[in-house]
Specification:
The chain is of the alpha/beta class. It has one domain: Class I glutamine amidotransferase (GATase) domain (Rossmann fold). The protein has an eight-stranded mixed sheet. Strand 3, helix 2 and strand 4 form a beta-alpha-beta unit. It starts with a strand and ends with a strand.
C-alpha cells in the first residue's frame, strides 16, 4: 500500500481536496506538522513518497526558517533514492532548489481563487481521481524553474510551474 509523508508548514495549508482524492484511491498519508516544531526526518523510511505543501515562507529565507534546510536535505535524499516527491507552492520551490533549479521572485502576485490546470501526467502518476482543472486558493509571488529530468504537473496562467514530480 502506498503511504505518503506530508510536510505541513502552517495549519490552514493542508492537503485539502487532495485528501479526498487520495482517500478515493486508497492512498494512505501522514502529516508531519512542521509548524508544531516536529523535527524533519533524515529519510523517508516507512514511506513510499513525500508531499511537501505550501506556506508563507520563501525558500531563500533559511536563516529565518531553519527547518527549510532540513526539508531540503530530506528532499535531496528522496530524489537520490528515486522516491516520488510531490511539491505544491513552497513545496515545489523546495524541490526545485533541491534539484538544482533557480527559485526567485515572480513578476506578479497571484492571490485569491484561481484555476489550476493539472497535466494529464499528474493524474496518471499520482491519483486517477483528480480533475483536469480545479479552482484553488493561491497566495504566492515566488516562482522557480522546473529541474532537469522533472515532469511539470500543474500550474496557472501567471505561474506555470506550481507542481512537478
Amino acid at each position: 500500500m502506498l503511504k505518503l509523508l506530508v510536510l505541513q508548514h502552517v495549519k490552514p495549508e493542508h492537503l485539502g481536496i487532495l485528501a479526498d482524492f487520495f482517500d478515493a484511491d486508497g492512498i494512505d498519508y501522514e502529516y508531519l506538522r512542521i509548524y508544531e516544531g516536529n523535527p524533519v526526518p533524515e529519510n523517508l523510511c516507512g514511506y513510499s513518497g513525500l508531499v511537501v505543501l505550501g506556506g508563507p515562507q520563501s525558500v531563500y529565507e533559511v536563516d529565518k526558517y531553519p527547518f527549510l534546510w532540513s526539508e531540503e536535505k530530506l528532499i535531496r535524499d528522496a530524489l537520490r533514492r528515486h522516491q516520488p516527491v510531490l511539491g505544491i507552492c513552497l513545496g515545489s520551490q523546495l524541490i526545485a532548489e533541491a534539484g538544482g533549479s533557480r527559485v526567485y521572485k515572480g513578476n506578479y502576485r497571484e492571490i485569491g481563487w484561481h484555476p489550476l490546470e493539472l497535466q494529464e501526467n499528474l493524474r496518471d502518476i499520482i491519483c486517477n481521481s483528480l480533475p483536469k482543472r480545479m479552482m484553488v486558493f493561491q497566495w504566492h509571488s515566488d516562482t522557480f524553474d522546473v529541474p532537469e529530468n522533472a515532469i511539470r504537473l500543474a500550474g496557472s496562467r501567471l505561474f506555470p510551474n506550481q507542481a512537478f514530480v
